[in-house]
Write a structure and sequence with these properties.
CATH architecture: 3-Layer(aba) Sandwich
Helix content: 25-40%
Oligomer: single chain
Number of helices: 6
Order of helices and strands: EHEEEHEEHEHHH
CATH class: Alpha Beta
Distance between the termini: 30 Å
Structural class: alpha/beta
Largest sheet: 7 strands, mixed
Number of strands: 7
Radius of gyration: 15 Å
CATH superfamily: Peptidyl-tRNA hydrolase
Number of domains: 1
């Protein structure tokens, strides 16, 4: 069965490099690394496909970004999953996570949405929370800044210096999850 890797984020140039779009940055990196070409799909998504691994054991991977906003991403992703016949237990959502420090990565299967509107939309559309998540740590805002405002801002200049490595590690965590399973991925990336 194929894997669907969902990069959560918002569309348009105003959001491209914001903290909330780290998931889309990771799927962009995966597509680039595997020379996969993006195409617009009728499900209101952009998708790119590639093989991961070698020979008969190679996994088919579809990376995707919704044309809609974060809180509306569930419907298009469910339609894309239906099109490619991907069950929820072969979906990986990559998203920003306020509750872990910047550049930390956590992987898990299932669980709540913790107030994340992209996860809430996916869970509602799939009618289950039983899908994988790659949680990309962005940390919490300092002082009194509203978290909703914080996630829509770009990374700090200090953070931008580490961003390429962070995105690369996120892509490696996705590949590890597909090829090696959750437990090994957690051992290698949940630090």
């Amino acid at each position: 069965m194929a894997w669907l890797v969902v990069g959560l984020g918002n569309p348009g140039p105003d959001y491209t490099f914001t903290r909330h779009n780290i998931g889309q940055m990771v799927v962009d990196a995966l597509a680039k690394q595997h020379s996969a070409k993006w195409s617009t799909h009728k499900t209101r998504t952009d998708a790119a496909a590639f093989k991961l691994g070698a020979g008969a054991e190679a996994a088919s991977v579809i990376v995707a970004k919704s044309h809609g906003y974060m809180n509306e991403s569930g419907g298009p992703m469910k339609a894309l999953a239906n099109f490619f016949k991907v069950d929820p237990d072969h979906v990986i959502a990559i998203h920003d996570e306020l509750d872990i420090g910047f550049a930390a990565i956590r992987s898990k299967f299932g669980g709540g949405d913790n107030g994340h509107n992209g996860l809430k939309s996916l869970t509602s559309a799939f009618d289950t929370a039983d899908y994988f998540r790659i949680r990309m740590g962005i940390g919490r805002p300092l002082g009194r800044q509203d978290p909703a405002d914080f996630v829509l801002k770009q990374f700090s200049s200090e953070q931008k210096k580490e961003l390429v490595l962070f995105i690369t590690r996120g892509a490696e965590a996705v590949e590890s999850l597909i090829l090696n399973g959750l437990e090994k991925t957690q051992q290698n990336f949940n630090i």
